[in-house]
Amino acid sequence: MSFRIIKALVAKDLSLFFRNRFYALITVLGIVTYIAIYLVMPSSVDERLEIGLYAPVVPPVFEQISEEGVEIEPVESKEALVEAVIEGQYAAGVELPADIMEKFASGQKPQVTLYFTADAPEEVKDAVEFLIRELAYLQTGQMLAIDVSAEILGRDMLGEQIPTRDRMRPLFALALIMFETMGLASLISQEIEQGTAQALLVTPTNVKDLFAAKGLMGVGLAFAQAVFFMAIVGGMSSQPLIILTTLLLGAILVTGAGFLIASLSKDMMSVMAWGAVVIIVFAIPAFGIMVPGTISGWVKAIPSYYLADIVHQAANFGAGWGDVWPNLLILMGFNVAIVGGGIMALRRKFQ
Prior knowledge:
Layout: H1 3-19, H2 21-40, E1 49-54, H3 60-63, E2 70-74, H4 78-86, E3 92-95, H5 100-106, E4 111-116, H6 122-140, E5 147-152, H7 164-167, H8 169-194, H9 196-202, H10 207-232, H11 240-264, H12 268-290, H13 304-317, H14 321-350
Parallel strand pairs: 1-2, 1-3, 4-5
Antiparallel strand pairs: 3-4
């Protein structure tokens, strides 16, 4: 490979990219818009303790609760209560037996079941149990008027809550990176359609130089935008080296996707069509992070899941190399497959 030729090709591609008013405008507008959205969103979270209650018969004291920061909401069935707790709608669930008032009247101890998610903090579990016992005491005037059992259901983020805007950082970063997929694919498709790529291969430029130049431009643009955005919104304050490494791997991923889109496309319209599909699919994992519980395990088959998850864990929870290295390896594997497949597919079109 000739580095002088690669440098000239990169300069040419950057000039052509920013000469296209649509991509130049969207690139700048995207960065400004995402930063603005992030900055205007709330920087704190609502720490109210919301508890779901399933009770065929509700003791009067449960309807008169006035604890600050505590909300008890009735639920129609036990199944709905369990599902709501698993999905994070409530920090805890409380199930009262149908004969609770009769047992209170006879001096017996009714069995009250509490539902928690697997990662609910101990202080939350203790607080809910204390609250239920206190309500039972207010209802009966007797200490230890109930027996309490707890069931663990799934995962909850209470105690680890983060502002919604910080949850959206992986989505914004991924969107900035992914848009370069369409830009790169459009540039390559246009050069193939106009015969520019074939003409370049008649000169001392070879296929390796051409791919190196396209790859450097695609990776450079995507990486620079994502890093700039994360730096502005505070995404680099925790584990910056992990964030940088992940964003670089993400830039390589979308560059490979751009190669594949260009190999499948015949003109600008087909680039837009294929690009939109890829962007939507790649954005799904980030939406799952933004709204936990909405997406199941199948999302791990999407390469961008590992990019979004690493950024989320490192930026929001301070996850270290020991926590994220499996995801990094998987992301590298996807990169090798996608970039390799894109290069092989494009070689056919160049020839």
